[in-house]
Design goal:
The protein is α/β, with parallel strands linked by helices. The protein folds into two domains: about 5-275, Mur-like, catalytic domain (UDP-N-acetylmuramoyl-L-alanine:D-glutamate ligase), CATH 3.40.1190.10; about 285-425, Mur ligase, C-terminal domain (Protein-Tyrosine Phosphatase, Chain A, Alpha-Beta Complex), CATH 3.90.190.20. The chain is about 40% helix and about 15% strand. The chain has helices at about 5-15, 25-35, 55-65, 100-115, 120-135, 160-165, 170-175, 195-205, 245-260, 265-275, 310-325, 340-345, 370-380, 390-400, 415-425, and strands at about 45-50, 70-75, 85-90, 95, 140-145, 185, 210, 215-220, 225-230, 235-240, 285, 300-305, 330-335, 355-360, 385, 405-410. A six-stranded mixed sheet has the order 11-12-16-13-14-15. The protein has a five-stranded mixed sheet with strand order 1-5-2-3-4, sandwiched between helices. The chain has a three-stranded antiparallel sheet with strand order 8-9-10, with helices on one face. The longest helix has 17 residues, at about 310-325. The radius of gyration is 22 Å and the shape is globular. It starts with 5 loop residues before the first helix and ends in a 5-residue tail after the last helix.
Length: about 425
């Protein structure tokens, strides 16, 4: 008997079902009923929605719970290199990416239960999440919303403006759709007062206990450390391992969420979580690999999949903070897709980046041509030139560089970041 392959199973699904999103819960609800409603047999769930920071909050939540000795399942999306990254199953000593045979069997079982009915691949793979998480023991499940909230397939337990609406209050209303009656709600730091009010109003209408950043909990930097404060008092913690001031707020939201879910987090567990948290392609430092070897010797190389103006701002702030401590010339190597505001992203780096190499995103049909992306960077006031690949950019830089070793940011798209990790030989584990 041939061993099932999860990748082959998913490729087969892609030929049978639409690849896009169809915002309704009817199909996934029907499918889950055929599967015996596995979503009703999950451990306590932390359900995370938002435009930026979802993945970081999921990573902090996982780190906190595992540091406290709990078994934790985690579902995130998208993946960077392999589909398996979306499904981390609880295990002693820390969760592990789903085994290929277990994953493939679950996909085949869910596809069979669908009985050829119209459905999206995303919905089938969401049902796989519930099947896997219900059949493997754990004390908590962290589930990141794939798209929006109200009609996201994960909601049977935001910059996606094409699906959610183009006004901040409409997007906030969609994301507020994950809020369930009388379930605790943690609202992280919000840039928009309008969005914050929509979230508060929704929680109040559904009679939910609500904990709000800046009102019920907060975090701030003091003497190079992070201080977290809520009604239980202060915790003086190491700065999060994930770089950038924005990660203080993400870490704080995760601490508040884990506590709201009924778990006790000791000071020692919180300390360990801050120093052990990991989230690939989100200000990830690359220290080894095939691409790293091509860069100028001594280069400080970072990878980040942030892809919208808001992400550009927080990444630029993180790099500016590093510049203050350890000055180096900053070079960008960027690839982006055409659904994002490329000029808005690059604008965050004006006055900070010395030069931009733009490259195609070969892993996505929506990749912006490298010459067009260079024009978008120039519109933002940056010096830019198109090149054929990340490897070409690094070799050009190495062969022409004269001066202190540069700081290099590779990013602009999660698709792009995933391709970089694969080419570098350092996929997520």
């Amino acid at each position: 008997m041939t061993t099932l392959s999860a990748e082959r199973e998913i490729e087969h699904l892609m030929t049978l079902h639409p690849k896009g999103f169809d915002l309704s819960l009817d199909r996934v609800t029907r499918l889950l009923e055929h599967l015996g409603n596995p979503q009703d047999r999950l451990p306590p769930v932390i359900h995370i929605a938002g435009t930026n920071g979802k993945g970081s909050c999921a990573a902090f939540s996982r780190a906190l719970l595992e540091a406290a000795g709990h078994l934790v399942h985690v579902h995130t999306s998208p993946h960077l290199v392999n589909w398996h990254e979306r499904y981390r199953l609880a295990a002693e000593g820390g969760g592990k990416l789903v085994d290929d045979e277990v994953f493939a069997e679950a996909i085949a079982r869910v596809a069979e239960a669908n009985q050829g009915q119209k459905i999206t691949v995303f919905e089938i793979l969401t049902a796989v999440t519930f099947v896997l998480f219900s059949e493997h023991p754990a004390e908590a499940a962290i589930i990141e919303v794939g798209l929006g909230g109200r009609f996201d397939a994960t909601n049977v337990v935001m910059d996606h403006e094409a699906y959610l609406g183009d006004r901040v209050e409409l997007i906030a209303a969609e994301k507020a759709g994950i809020i369930k009656r009388r379930c605790p709600v943690v609202i992280g730091a919000q840039e928009s007062e309008t969005a914050l009010q929509v979230l508060i109003d929704t929680a109040e209408r559904l009679d939910c206990p609500t904990v709000i950043y800046g009102q019920d909990f907060l975090a701030f930097e003091e003497n190079g450390r992070m201080v977290y404060q809520d009604e239980d008092g202060l915790m003086d913690l190491p700065s999060p391992r994930l770089p950038g001031r924005h990660q203080f707020a993400n870490a704080a939201a995760a601490i508040a969420a884990v506590k709201a879910a009924g778990f006790e987090i000791s000071h020692r567990a919180a300390e360990r979580a801050m120093t052990h948290v990991a989230w690939p392609a989100r200000m990830q430092k690359l220290t080894q690999g095939k691409l790293v070897d091509l860069a100028p010797k001594g280069s400080d190389i970072w990878l980040d999949g942030g892809h919208n103006p808001g992400a550009g701002i927080v990444i630029a702030e993180a790099l500016a903070g590093q510049e203050e401590k350890n000055p180096r010339p900053l070079i960008l190597i960027s690839g982006m897709i055409n659904t994002k505001d490329q000029t808005g992203y690059f604008s965050a780096f004006k006055g900070l980046a010395r030069h931009v190499y733009t490259v195609p995103v070969s892993s996505s049909d929506a990749g912006v041509p490298n010459d067009e992306l260079a024009l978008r960077a120039e519109e933002a006031g940056l010096s830019a030139e198109p090149v054929s690949s990340v490897a070409s950019a690094l070799m050009l830089l190495r062969d022409s560089w004269d001066g202190p070793a540069p700081r290099i940011l590779i990013g602009g798209s999660l698709y792009f970041a995933g391709a970089v990790l694969a080419e570098n030989g350092t996929p997520p584990t």
